[in-house]
Amino acid sequence: YLLSQFFSSGMVSEQIAVEGKTFGLELRFKRLGKSYNIELLDVRKDDYAGTSMARNYSSEVRLTDPSRGVEFETRIWMNNPLRYAGETFYQSGYNVDGRGNETSTLQVVKNTGWMIPYVSCMIAATGMLAHFCILLLRFLRRIQTDTPRESKNGVPSIDPATRLPAIVRWGVPSVVLLLGIGWVAMKANPPTRPHAQMDVERFGTIPVMFEGRVKPMDTMARNSLRILSNRETFVDAAGERQPAISWMLDVIARPEESEKHRVFRIDSLDVLATFGLERRKGFRYSWEELRTGAMEFQKQVSMAQQKAPAERTFLQRKIMELSQRIRRYRVLADSFRPLPFPAFPDKEAIDKDRQKAVEMVTAIGRLVKQVPSTNQMLASMQPPLAAPVGPADQPWVAYAAAKNTTFAEQYRSKTETAPALAKLDKVLDAYGSREAIAFNVAVDDYLSFVASNPPAGYEPKITSFESYINHLAPFFNLIPLYAVALLITIVGWLGAVWPRLARLMRNSAFWLIVLALVVHTLALCARVAISGRPPVTNLYSSAVFVGWGCVLIGLFIEVVFR
């Protein structure tokens, strides 16, 4: 008999009749008696704001051990286990049944070899240190042996009679450094627009709760467009390159225009054939072009989903890649698309055509009944929450959900629109009607309101600073500085032919790299301040941090050994 493990629930999985009697057989895990008891007081699952992604599991427990005279309450959460009596209790699971009852799962570990990883690390560290010291001594001996007496730190001395004038020795590096500072200052200058034009950059500082934190609209727009297009800009119908925030505004307030923007990158010819599209320069296509082949594409997506990721063909992987991009676009678009509520018929409309007014009110009533299910479906998509009008414990709601709820409440009790939502409506209406001055005034009014009535998690200075850092793009704009320093260094390698030129180029490159390192350091600090996390949380931030460390080490070696 293969027995089941239902002993604790009281269910009998196997029944065996022996000599007229029926016996129930069940299998249970081996039980180990302990001298202490653990009682669960509370268990929690904390999600990142606006998402269903778990940020933390935790259990409040009371441990009682009469044999040792111990009784205390403690909290167990991820990476913070309870250690007692030679055993470690890790928070490993959380579950809610259909009745709302919460269950906490603790993994119990008795690690008798807990010292082995520490000993292993010490052995590895000792070996690495010994290897480094061997190479260092070999290097120092070579420097001492190979360095001519008339040279200093490995750099041949120059005859004073042929030495460059001081104005040249100091002037050229100074000019190079000033040019670098000018480049940084030019990129650091915030964008400005004439008063008669829409200040879309200012709109980019409007806060939105998305992917677990409050961020400026500009960050959401850049990240989303990079996912769709691998770029942070796009080319509009007039052939002009526009920032990501302009595309985001079109998605929100001018959907018919946003559908014409070529922002979906499709570099697979087989995928293009699915939509009946021809290859074009840049491989970017609009939602309007993709819509024609939507049925065939969805069929391909369904077929790809039935296979494990490792078993998918190259075409299916590309299909799923595009599917993720389309899903991102639809989440953004739907989060700003409320139900199509018509305007309430006024007295004049009722007197003019009573039958039509009754039909309109009936249609509004049907839409009002759809509000709960529509908002629930929208919430399952984990959309950006752009309207800070919710309850105190979770003030952020998706714009479409806020509009749906507000209209339903007004339909029932004639309540007024929340001030924040009303001011945001003015911003989007002004952009949709292309009224530049009204748009700029509405943006300033909305930002002033949320700054004086900040919702949970919103810090106006941090959000504005993040928007500015997005414009500055320090890591991207550091590439030219490092590249120019590399070229100057390569010229400086001609020291065997022109010693004076080598020294001049080396000094110029050194101070240019110092400038780049200062900007690099400030950019890392800004990233930490914005995200509230160390600069090694993902592959991108780790690469940027490692690059910073390499530059710092390189400058140190240059100062010591030139």
Written account of the structure:
The protein is of the alpha+beta class and 562 residues long. The chain is 53% helix and 15% strand. It has a 3-stranded antiparallel beta sheet with strand order 3-4-5, with no helix packed on it. It starts with 13 loop residues before the first strand and ends with a helix. The mean pLDDT is 87.
Task: Give a concise summary.
The protein is of the alpha+beta class and 562 residues long. The chain is built from 19 helices and 16 strands.
Structure characteristics:
single chain, 562 residues, alpha+beta, three-stranded antiparallel sheet, globular
Topology:
Blueprint: E1 14-18, E2 21-25, E3 37-47, E4 54-65, E5 70-77, E6 82-84, E7 87-96, E8 102-109, H1 116-146, H2 166-188, H3 200-203, E9 207-210, E10 213-216, H4 217-229, E11 233-235, E12 241-243, H5 244-253, H6 255-258, E13 262-265, H7 269-275, E14 284-286, H8 287-291, H9 294-305, H10 314-334, H11 347-352, H12 354-380, E15 387-388, E16 396-397, H13 399-413, H14 419-432, H15 436-452, H16 460-472, H17 474-492, H18 499-531, H19 539-561
Antiparallel strand pairs: 1-2, 3-4, 4-5, 6-7, 7-8, 9-10, 11-12, 13-14, 15-16
Major sheet description: 3 strands, antiparallel
Terminal-residue CA separation: 79 Å
* Mean of pLDDT: 87
- Low-pLDDT windows of residues: none
Shape: globular
Number of helical stretches of at least 4 residues: 19
